[in-house]
Design goal:
69% of the residues lie in helices and 12% in strands. It contains four helices and two strands, in the order E-E-H-H-H-H. The termini are far apart.
Length: 104
């Protein structure tokens, strides 16, 4: 019995100088994981850099990466958990800065 090859999920990542760069989902998930780990980045920051939605980043690093590179997944999970713990602090600082700017 002949097996059909798996479908490749290809997404446009960005356009540079007239060229469109394509990545497979698995490759994109790995690149996102590496970026988040190296830069201690949030999902929002990674989404901005890769020009994709936050939900796509979250799905890639929390579901796809687990099946692709489990050790990287665990490291990324630590970063995301740390970001979650610090979220309320960053929000408070942002609000403080916002009102300080309005006061000037």
């Amino acid at each position: 019995m002949h097996k059909t090859p798996p479908l490749l999920h290809i997404y446009v990542v960005q356009e540079r100088a007239g060229f469109i760069l394509f990545y497979e989902c698995d490759e994109r998930a790995k690149q996102l994981g590496l970026y988040i780990r190296q830069h201690q980045a949030t999902v929002r920051q990674a989404a901005a850099v890769f020009k994709i939605s936050k939900s796509t980043v979250h799905k890639d690093v929390s579901q796809r990466l687990k099946n692709i590179d489990y050790s990287l997944y665990l490291k990324v999970k630590e970063v995301l958990e740390q970001n979650l713990k610090e979220r309320h602090i960053r929000g408070g600082i942002a609000t403080k800065n916002k009102y300080a700017q309005l006061k000037k």
